[in-house]
Amino acid sequence: MKIFISGGVKNGKSTYAQRLAKAQSADVPLYYVATMKSTDSEDDERIARHRAERDGWDFTTIEQPVDIETVLEQCDHGGSFLLDSLTALLANEMFSPPAWNLNELAADKITEGLSMVLSKLINIVVVSDYIYSDAMLYDPFTEMYRKFLAQVDRMAAAMCDVVLEAAYANIIVHKGKEIYETLA
Q1: Where are the domains of the chain?
Q2: pTM of the prediction?
Q3: Which residue of 29, 42, 50, 118 shows the fewest CB atoms closer than 10 Å?
Q4: Per-residue pLDDT tens digits of the chain, which is 184 residues long
Q5: Which CATH entry fits the domain spanning 2-180: 2.30.40.10, 1.10.860.10, 3.40.50.620, 3.40.50.300?
Q6: What's phi and psi for 109, nearest 5 deg?
Q7: Closest Cα partner for 125 from 12, 36, 20, 50?
Q8: What is the C-alpha separation between 96 and 45, in angstroms, rounded?
């Protein structure tokens, strides 16, 4: 089963996604595809927290901050996967060190690579952050990032069997309710 889960930052998505991936992992390898690339101490703390949260869950971690399609070369396609997160993946693809130049083709690159991943894997949970409801006007780079993330999220949601939203510790099913109920 392919599951897409989105919601606000620090809303329990990753922990819930771990449970969903684990529920699909009976007798198959369990993979955590980590996309966050640390750029500061706050990122280091978040990465450490995520590692601690999945300690003892038997995940094999694949660090994949860019080129998401190459994850297919590193795993058993019959396993259960958790990809966390599209938000970090997009930031990594859009702004590459050391010059941090903008890649205006990042969303297209990710949708192409993620489409390959989703078409080849049987069980995967994909996590993203819902950052679209702010009424604020942002600088052009941030608006471009939001637009690109929406493009990537729409493609992922279209290819997944189940689409969930985490909102204030509640899970809202937007697509695939009957399928989702077999896991819940």
Answers
A1: 2-180
A2: 0.93
A3: 42
A4: 999 999 988 788 888 999 999 999 989 999 999 999 888 899 889 889 888 888 889 999 999 999 999 999 999 999 999 999 999 999 999 997 777 788 999 999 999 999 999 999 999 999 999 987 776 788 888 899 999 999 999 999 999 999 999 988 789 999 999 999 987 6
A5: 3.40.50.300
A6: -60, -45
A7: 20
A8: 21
Find the helix packing angle between 86-94 and 106-120, rounded to 10°.
Answer: 140
Q: Tell me which residue has tokens 């896991």.
A: 183
Order of all β-strands in the sheet with 59-63:
59-63, 30-34, 80-84, 123-129, 2-7, 162-167, 170-175
Cβ-in-10-Å burial (0-12, 13-18, 19+) of 66 comes to middle
